[in-house]
Amino acid sequence: MTVATARAEVSYLEAISQALDEEMARDERVFLLGEDIGQYGGAFKITEGFLQKYGEWRVLDTPLAESGFVGAAIGAAMMGMRPVVEMQFADFISCAFDQITEVAAKNHYRWGAAVPIVIRAPFGGGVHGGPFHSECPEGWFFHSPGLKIVAPATPYDAKGLLKAAIRDPNPVLYFEHKYLYRRIKAVLPEGDAVVPIGKAEVKRPGTDISLITYGAMLHLALEAAETLSQEGIELEVLDLRTLIPLDTDAIYASVRKTSKAIILHEDNKTGGIGAEIAARLTEDCFDHLDGPVMRIAPPDTPVPFSTPLEEFFLPKASDVIEAARKLAAY
Amino acid sequence: MDPSADVRGIKRSDLLQMYYHLRLTRSLEDRITALYRQGRIVGGVYTSHGMEAIAVGYASALEPHDVVAPFHRDIGAFLIRGFSPGEIIAQYLGKRAGPTKGKDGNVHMGDLKRGVIGFVSHLADNLPVAAGAALAFKIRGESRVVFAGTGDGGTSRGDFHEAMNLAAVRKLPVVIFCNNNQYAYSTPLRYQMAIADVVERAKAYGMPGEIADGNDVAAVYLASKRAIAKARAGEGPTFLEFKTMRMHGHSEHDPAKYVPRELLEEWTKKDPILKAEALLRQLQYGEDAYFQEVGERAKKEIDAGVEFAEQSPLPDGPEVLEGVFATEDEVGP
Ligand SMILES: Cc1ncc(C[n+]2csc(CCOP(=O)(O)OP(=O)(O)O)c2C)c(N)n1
Asked: A174 near A161, Cβ under 8 Å?
């Protein structure tokens, strides 16, 4: 007898929590460390109940010392563990910058030691967090060989990419967008759905312009694509999902099809990921381009606090629509 | 002066083995310095000249399944962990036979299979890493200890303090040591910290600390043994300050004119090899003929190492592209 039960919708946040729980149950080498993740369940409650379930040596509340506990994760990983670090807010990852870029990223290259750690970093704006709780710091690490960087935009990808990150033998920075935590929900399939690192996904196929994005901006892109479709402009929305290794095959395939590209991200413009993609497109796809590669990104300022300022700062669907109209006219 | 009961408790064979490693370290570094002066080593050379007793002492106190995160003047620890002189010289010459295959130089090498965590230039960065390795042992209930250190300069870094604190609150099986050789490059201790003894720093973390004579291999060995035993028994971390003096410049290019001559003269008399010989004589474990024979044996080994390293090939340029990412089969020691 099979009873079809409607599966409940899962939020982006619950998807992350499920991935952690399933990986901890699957592999006893997986353990968590970070500030306030035990009894309190983490600043965003992602690890709520984990302490009771897995005990104090698999869910470790750490001192307030990002470099120290990221370093500790590195050491434990080298001894064969699979630590997952929670950075309370991605902004504080700057305190651990040295351990991430100098130790985790370089150890394997220098002397062959694998460092299978995951650093979960709740990032992004739209939550009135101000300059120190809204940052998108992925660009700092994008320049650092030896790291992998993922930034899921949907509950499915959030869960699948976290599983992949935990199973990856390399240091993976997992940028989870705070704005999406409770706003984006989906029904997840049953079973162990792992999303491979390094693969972008076309979230909406189109023929006229490739819109390349990741993180919370995906949802803005899809909204703009819907509006533009009514005007007869079909955006192809490519969600990068992984920033390192960058899926240039998928980027190039899309741009060869549409001949036009817009890159949209929430990290500020100068030296951001969009700059790299634009440069690669001119190097490798110049013959296919029918217009300038455009970038939509916030201005080069810290993320502001006050509502009108933050609204001005963050990209809007109207920015995408305006850029797409201009580009379509080429 | 009569050797203490503790020193008498060290096995004769262990003491003789430590003496041999002191001589091997000195020979190896003297040869590396000579190669550097001949312009055959590109890049920096940092020696432990006059401080050999520290690495030899602590590495001799560890069990094979323990782990070390050596400091940049701890070449003796590599030798004791089974790195051959040839392999080490190959590393200095940038040869493929070096542990990093030419990717990195000098003491920036490691090997998890031999329980050695590779040194990172950013001083004190390896101390949180060492605490994390100890954390892995604690989580898994393994009776293994991690031994990690830095210099007096390195103890000013945040990572030193973050590691000390983390190790203390979680009672991790780690021993953190400092070689207090009185200078950090050209900066004397009085401009490094406003306290006389580095060990004071451990108090802030509720961590027991001990000062030992860093030029006395037996003293280093005994202090290390005590700290290791505590860590292994689940009593948590210890901080050890080994007092010594940096007898060469910061690196071989540095004539160290900032160090007063008298200070060096005073410390020359406390050379760790001379000290070890005095002890062995007192205990009647050896005399001049024996010391000479060990010295010759060490020199021969170094000669063979140089030959091996010189004959081994340099890496090919495109090998630069290899190894950025690890594969699954490389995870763990
Ligand atoms: C974070 C960092 N800053 C600066 C340096 C450059 N540097 C290398 S060794 C050194 C002095 C180290 O002194 P100390 O820790 O006392 O060790 P010693 O070399 O005297 O044994 C300095 C400043 C470095 N390696 N790391």
From this structure: yes
